[in-house]
Predict the structure of ABC transporter ATP-binding protein.
Amino acid sequence: KLDFAGKMLAKLGAPVKDETVHAVDGVDLTVTKGEVVGLVGESGCGKSTLGRMVAGIMPASDGTIRWHGKELAELTGADGRRAKLQTQMIFQDPMSSLNPRLRVADIVGEAPLVHGLTTRREFDGYVDEQLRRAGFDPSLKRRYPHQFSGGQRQRIGIARALAVQPEFIVCDESVAALDVSIQAQILNLFMKLRQDLNLTYLFISHDLGVVEHLSDRVVIMYLGRVVEEAASEEIFARANHPYTQALLSEVPRIDARKKSFAGVKGEIPSPLNPPSGCHFHPRCPHAFDRCKLERPALKTVAPGHRSACHLNDRVA
Ligand code: SF4
Ligand code: MG
């Protein structure tokens, strides 16, 4: 058994250059056991790339990923397989990640059987338990994925992930394709599973509103860089970075937050050829000379709250 004292640390260096892959540049992300971290940004900001790297699906061109204090790349044999299994990824579109030729029971039970987490004899009971946990009726397990709705398919995907007994789940826009009422059900399921199974999540979303209710900590990314990071309540009460403030103004809320920003203005620039200095300067209502020239460092603005904006130096 791996020790739980360590942290999952992804320190990713040089940008990944590829036409289809978005750059992730010098991101340092730590997810502590039991924590739910929300990773938020517009599409193309590199959050999916970062999620894939953290899940070990995509290699980082530079940097390291640690699992319980040990470098993931150096874990071999049974330890390596275990570390891989214990991180599961749940995607936006379950259809593309569920094998259409397999029945639900085999989709869920295949990996645990291969990895010796269940046996042929116990297979049915094991599969039923996973499906039940995911809120899916086990009596339908002989059917195929296309026979179900998007929400039910996402439950199959969740049951498949749970079946290998993960401790860390990376959710990449896992509810983005679902109707709002179904979204709420799936989000509630994630939170129930967190409690029941002591799971840790990296919850990736373009929607700060989705992340608000389930994250302990929120990390905001813009064009491959982390621009702000704080406890969830802190981000929502005292967002520091102009980009985060603009994102927040897009979240519909009952208490009618002051509309000092009308959302994020302008198109997101190409991540492969980002603007100089602060990547956000062409869209920032507060930009000044220094912003075009110098990259702002991520600095502590309050305990546990970091932000990368030159305005913080001005005030000081
Ligand atoms: Fe805006 Fe300048 Fe701050 Fe960037 S560094 S967010 S451009 S004020
Ligand atoms: Mg994405």
